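Onboarding guide, step 5: your first structure request.
Type a short instruction followed by the sequence, for example:

Predict the 3D structure of this protein.
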Amino acid sequence: MAIRIFLILLAATLLPAQAEAVRIKDIAVFSGVRDNQLTGYGLVVGLSGTGDKKDSAFTMRSMVNMLEKMGVRVDMKQMKPKNVAAVMVTARMPVSSKPGTRIDVTVSSLGDSTSLLGGVLIQTPLKGIDGKVYALAQGPLTVGGFSVSGNQAQAQKNITTVAQVPGGAIIERAVPFEFNSQQSLTLNMNNPDFTTTNQVVERINKALGGIFARSVDVSTISLEIPSDFKGNMVPLMASLENIEITPDTAARVVVDEKTGTIILGRDVRISRVAVAHGNLQVTVRENQEVSQPGPFSGGSTAITQSTDLTAGEDQRNLNILEGATLQELVDALNSVGATPRDLISILRSMKSSGALHAHLEVI
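The system replies with structure tokens like these:
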């Protein structure tokens, strides 16, 4: 097995290096290597008057239930929850977590608490999608900010209603899964692409020295475990995930009209086209004037309205644009002298005319 691992690593290093090469571990995920989401409902105590208000019925009920379990009988009408906040507790549990392992948890306010600063999370069971308890969370919160307010002013840094408890949850139940018992693996590509998927298959087979990997569809690869690694798959995974490939993606233009952001992929091309982009500006101004009546006329003072309307448009000449490479495309678009928001309109018009050879996506 040691010789085979050496050959895989040697093959991975001797494969022809290409520009923009990335590792398989950065563009795909392996079956069985995943996190499980855990969720729980709990209470944060010890707040300095920044907890939920008295009209938060679920907070009051939770406090009563907690105290009754501890043998303390209370009247809900007499309780003041200003130092207590109801929260949702979430965590991500790796599949390899065993009982006793600690994981981080995130605590988020549910009610009208203004800050969780200085609070302590009371023991909270964290459940999976199957309803079973997999971890118990408890501990002091860390809030990456502060909030201070007075009668007329307020100062705040970051969000104070979301906090973290580093290592605040202890795993009590493991997920029943044996990684080394698998007879085959599945690789799921993060971005579906036939060219990239086929390239991964070829690189893996070349590194293993046989036909062990095959593509199932555009984003799924099935990998048969070589006999030398059955029951001991960690060395195989460590070798395969560092194989470098050059991902290929479809030409795409992404625009965000909310911020005026434009992202152009490296394979975006435009055919030879002439573009003239004018800037039309319309200004409407409302004026109010006071009309005074003549002396001894018996009239009254009145306010009259007047509207001024102006329109202007820049005189722009036609520009011939063409781009066979990304740099040429950027230079051609910059030659128009338009703002990013104007470029969004230009790119849309190019797409409609058939000159833009890329998928235009608006987010």
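Each response can be followed by summary notes, for example: DSSP finds six helices and 22 strands in the chain.
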